[in-house]
Amino acid sequence: MTRRPMVVGNWKMNKTNSEATKLIQQLSFSYENVYAAVDVVICPPYTALRSAQVVLRFDSKSNILIGAQDVFWESSGAYTGAISADMLKDLDCAYCIIGHSERREYFHETDEDVARKASALLGNKIAPIICCGESLAARENNETLPLVTAQIRAALAHISASEAESVVLAYEPIWAIGTGRTPTPEQADEVCAALRDTFRELYGPAAADALRVLYGGSMNPGNVDAFKEMPNIDGGLVGGASLVAEDFLTLAKAFS
Ligand code: PGA
Predict the structure, then answer these.
(1) What pLDDT, on the 0 to 100 scale, is given for residue 29?
(2) Which of 100, 172, 223, 251 best tests ligand 1's pocket when mutated (most atoms within 8 Å of CB)?
(3) E strand or H helix that includes residue 121
C-alpha cells in the first residue's frame, strides 16, 4: 500500500492576518504545483483562514490545502469565543488539528473533548489530524506506547469505520516540541507503528494500511530525511519550521 505523504504546517499563535497573507502568497506563488505527490496543508490561526481561502482558491494555482488548529464540538449557539466545524468548512478547511499537547496543557482538554471534536469534524467532512504524545517522564518510565495508544483509542471512541478512512494521526512527543530535541527516527517509527496497530485492531487491516501517521516535534530541513525513510512515518506535523516559506517547502519536497 502506498500512502500519499503529507506535510502539515501548524502555525500556532503566530502571524497577524497581514503577515500570514504574505507567507501564504510566498508559499503558493513561488512553488505552484510542484508538489503533486504530497498533500501540503497549512494551519494558520483562525484570524487568517479567510485570507488563506482567498489566496489559495482565487489567486493561485497551487494545491496547498487549508487546515485549522482546533474546533469546538457544538455546531452553533452561546459558546463565546468558540468556532464550529461548519464555520471551518465554509472557509475551505479540509483538515483540523485536534488534541495537540498545547491544547491539552493550557486549555485543559481531555481525551473526551478530543473525541467530541473528532465527531464534529467528520460530521462536516473535515478530516481530523488527531495528536498524541508523551512527556519526558512518561518516556523515561517506558509508558509511551500504552499512553499514546490510549489517547488515540479514546479519540476514536465514536468514529465509525467509514469515517475512520479520513482520519490522520500525529505522534508528537511533548519533549520534542519546539525544543530542538527529537527521538531517533527508529523510536518515532516504533510509536507510529503502534498507532497503526491500534487502528488495525479497531478498523481492520485495509484501514490500517491506508492510515497516514505523521511525526511532529522539531522536524526541520536538517533532520527530515532520516524521518522520511521510516516505514510507518507518512509525513510531518511541523511547527517552527512551517513559519519560514523555504524551510517548509523543503520539508514538503523531502516527502514528495
Ligand atoms: P515544532 O512543533 O515543529 O515547533 O516542534 C510541532 C508541533 O507542535 O506541531
Answers:
(1) 80
(2) 172
(3) helix 111-123
| Residue 128 CA, ligand 1 centroid: distance in Å | 17
Closest ligand 1 atom to residue 176 Cα is 5
pTM above 0.85, yes or no: yes
Measured in Å, residue 90 CA sits from the centre of ligand 1 at 27
pLDDT band at 97 (very low <50, low <70, confident <90, very high): very high
∠ CA 226-34-166 to the nearest 5 degrees? 70
Query: In sequence order, what are the residues at sequence separation of 6 or more whose Cβ sits closer than 8 angstroms to the Cβ of residue 22?
Result: none
Write out the three cell numbers for 39.
498533500
Do residues 119 and 139 lie in contact, with contact meaning Cβ atoms separated by under 8 Å? no
Sequence-ordered list of residues with C-beta below 8 angstroms from that of 137, at least 6 positions apart, any chain: none
Residue 20: predicted pLDDT: 98
Q: If DSSP codes are grouped into helix, strand and coil, which group holds residue 179?
A: coil
pLDDT tens profile 21-37: 999 999 988 665 557 78
Cα–Cα separations (whole angstroms), residue 215 to 32, 73, 190: 25, 25, 11
Only one residue has cell 461548519, namely 86
